[in-house]
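The records we work with from here on pair a chain with its fold. These numbers are not coordinates but entries in a learned vocabulary of local backbone shapes. To see the layout at work, look at the sequence and tokens printed below:
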Amino acid sequence: MKEFDSKQQRAFLQFVTGAPRLPPGGLASLSPKLTIVRKSCSVWVDTNLPSVMTCANYLKLPPYSSKEKMKEKLLYAIMEGQGSFHLS
């Protein structure tokens, strides 16, 4: 997260929580708390994208082969997924 610029950080928050900004008190005040877990996936791990459950602030990350691959796939997911799902 610290390597992301402010636009990417906001997109990450929207991707994981469904909210455009943090509540007063920041990440520590998220309810439910942000949870990151390992995602089970196919043999070709580096082709899988991360997924989320916004209602639970739950991020599922595949065990990528490198930090760079994780950043690439996470940025792709958060930037391309913007605006594709909204609560009404």
